[in-house]
Amino acid sequence: MGICRLCPRECSVDRKSGQTGYCGVTGSGIYAARASLHIWEEPCISGTNGSGTVFFSGCNLRCVYCQNYQIARAETGKQITVERLAEIFLELQEKGAANINLVTPTHYTPEIIAAIEKARTGGLSLPVIYNCGGYEKTVTLKTLEGIVDVYLTDFKYMEKETARRYSGAEDYPETAQAALKEMVRQQGRAVFGPDGNMKRGVIVRHLLLPGHLKNAKAVVGYVYETYGDQVYLSLMNQYTPLLQVNEWPELNRRVTKREYDRLVDYAVSIGVENGFIQEGEAAGESFIPAFDHEGI
């Protein structure tokens, strides 16, 4: 690993020698909390059997409202080798996964590349999805060209102060813009297979936070005005207030139907056609799997 500058935090720590990065990870191995078929993604990602999702431990954002806080804080996770990760990819393929879905992978990028290459040599033929928080360095993303087929990225903030308050990343807006530009450069317009699953492309997710409709509209407006129908927008209302948001009382409620409807109406009004919305009561812990080392 050496000195780590994989993400915009640029901690410059040597995890291999026992130092801990902002991501919360220490050591030279890979830490993963779960590998399983996951059905709670966009339809073109989940497919019929589910997405072959690998949840990695640690995160370079560690948002205060994180729905996967256990792994974001690296509180759980089993250490594995590159060889074992390659085996996990092949096991997920054997189970009928629609793809290989890498969740919070940034701080393991070199190891993941090695594991994918090894798995492809061993017969892996599924699309690879890079499922990230949008806070990425373009130089790191460039190393994934030809490795990753689909970028499934969050775009959380267009407001610097909101990014600072909830993710400690005031530079998030411009960093996410640059990262998205590189993702689109690599993947171009989306390509779907005969089964309806995305084989190549970019999906931009935005999780609507309670009381933050203005920020959400700014994100949707920027993405659509910049890339049009070249990328897919996924507007999510599944925000669940967990215990850790007690210090941020404005986040200690669910998103209202009116808030979400206004966001969807805005997206439609500016011309968004390629996108996904969540209908009905989406918030809840059904979207939060048990990080019990299944499949690891």
TrEMBL record:
One of its GO terms (molecular function) is metal ion binding. Residues 54-182 form the Radical SAM core domain. [4Fe-4S] cluster binds at residues 59, 63, 66. Keywords: Iron, Iron-sulfur, Metal-binding, S-adenosyl-L-methionine. The keyword S-adenosyl-L-methionine applies. SUPFAM superfamilies: Radical SAM enzymes. It holds the Pfam family Radical_SAM. Its cofactor is [4Fe-4S] cluster. Binds 1 [4Fe-4S] cluster. The cluster is coordinated with 3 cysteines and an exchangeable S-adenosyl-L-methionine. InterPro entries: Aldolase_TIM, MJ0674-like, Pyrv-formate_lyase-activ_prd, rSAM, rSAM_sf. This is Radical SAM protein.
